[in-house]
Amino acid sequence: MAIKSADKKPTTAYVMRYAHPFFTSTPHATRPQTPFGKRMLDWAKQQLGPIPKPVRAGKMGLAEIIGDKGVSEISQAGEIRFHATGDTGNLHSQSAENVSQQMAADFDVNHPGRNPAFLFHLGDVIYGPHKSASYRDEFYRPYKGYPGKIIAVPGNHDGETFPGTDPTSLQAFLDNFCAKSAAVPPAAAAARILRETMTQPGVYWWLDSPFLDLIGLYSNFAEGPGFLEGGPANKRDTQQITWLTTALETIAASRKGGPRKALMIATHHPPFSNGGDHGGSPDLLAEIDKACGQAGIGPDAFLSGHSHTYQRYSRQTTIAGKTAQVPYVVCGVGGRGLQSVPTATGRVNNNVSFEKSASEFGYLLVIVSAHSLQIEFCTETSGSKKPFDSVKVAL
Question: Which domains does the chain have, with CATH numbers?
């Protein structure tokens, strides 16, 4: 039987040579416009998801998390300590549980003021569909022995949607981290695990604590890069950017009449990264820089996840006439499969240096006093931890 040729050519207005039109050496500025934009960044920006508005003006006090007594203990100790790591979601993850056990070893019941105030999860708590059901084995079970409270910013996988199982972006994250009141959720109770939901004001927030102002931001659900604005493209949502500027202005004003606390900013997507296929987010950095410039205040350190690596960069910034050397730390090694990262250090550009890296599971211990901010990275291997890197900033 003869094979008949098509009756007519398909009427397609735009046919691509490759899977996407960005496989080219032509500079962005001189590329022809396509239905998908001129670069992959344009396409990612068109696909952004919604950003739920926070309650309570997006601000929470440390007492809301650990109580007045806990805050008093930290104040008397003269410093606040907390853990941080990201990218833990993994079914029956022994790696995540191993990291959790090593962090738990940092607690001493006899010295409460020196215990970490909380674990700050840097995003990607849950990967894949069935997120609500997955919280039992991918979050509550790995941290069943961790004595501290856990706060978080969502990662891109926390915001992704799936028809049928996860139709609403961020719903499972909101249920577990932004609940109206603290209660043991069914996902934990079903495994006989005692951990209450967190009551954050939203997916982005400002934590006011002794010695430290900590701002967590949602960088949306693109695989990369990250953005502070919400979508879709025809309905640009800049509420988070406006909120950030206002929060920074408030912090800057408080310094004039009160103590100079440390300021840390965190996003899931890192501004700088060279790990695996998870690169940096220049637009995200530009949005934050603009807000900092308008408020006249910048971060003393910046934390991120997303890349399943440890990376530390040093960036020289000048804001309101003041020059500072700011560490940008990536710690996405909380339990998900590791990615490769270059070990050679050196200049990224005139203002940024790549200082150190590792492709090992681990976590950060952050220590902040009235005079300094220190970030320590510990690796976890075969049931033991080992100090790997440390950076200290004078305040």
Answer: 38-394 (3.60.21.10)
